[in-house]
Write a sequence for this structure.
């Protein structure tokens, strides 16, 4: 029983330390993306503008959820794109058609999500702005 308790608390302690390490690594990845990727910084600025516009315009809780989900999704996708670029550069420092296709596909995924986010953003904001004007 004593052994069982000790082993359970040991596992718990180890898991918590591991969890903190994971957060530290994840934060390092976000900071690296922000530092090295101009597109990531652009998406951060776009999210800040969207949040400011939402605050000025007045959004419902569900509209805020959509804006937050789209902004978070955009950041996450940009980080995945950065990860793919790094791995491609690692495994294929020389030019190779497959390496190019992998990078192009990852960049395409970011573009698709960015366009969809922009369209949804306009669908939320434009009717409200038209209501304010007329
Ligand atoms: N190893 C490679 N082999 C073939 N084509 C490549 C390779 N690396 C890059 N390319 C081509 O060049 C394009 C730009 O690559 P790059 O690594 O500069 O990506 P990027 O999207 O501009 O990245 P960053 O955001 O870091 O500037 C890719 O989308 C791809 O078409």
């Amino acid at each position: 029983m004593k052994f069982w308790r000790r082993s359970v608390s040991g596992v718990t302690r180890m898991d918590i330390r591991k969890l903190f390490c994971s957060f530290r690594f994840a934060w390092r990845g976000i900071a690296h993306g922000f530092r090295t990727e101009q597109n990531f910084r652009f998406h951060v600025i776009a999210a800040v503008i969207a949040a400011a516009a939402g605050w000025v315009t007045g959004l419902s809780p569900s509209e805020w959820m959509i804006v937050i989900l789209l902004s978070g999704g955009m950041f996450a996708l940009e980080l995945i794109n950065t990860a793919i670029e790094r791995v491609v550069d690692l495994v294929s420092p020389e030019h190779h058609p497959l390496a190019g296709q992998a990078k192009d596909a990852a960049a395409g995924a970011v573009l698709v999500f960015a366009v969809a986010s922009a369209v949804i953003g306009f669908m939320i904001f434009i009717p409200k702005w038209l209501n304010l004007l007329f």
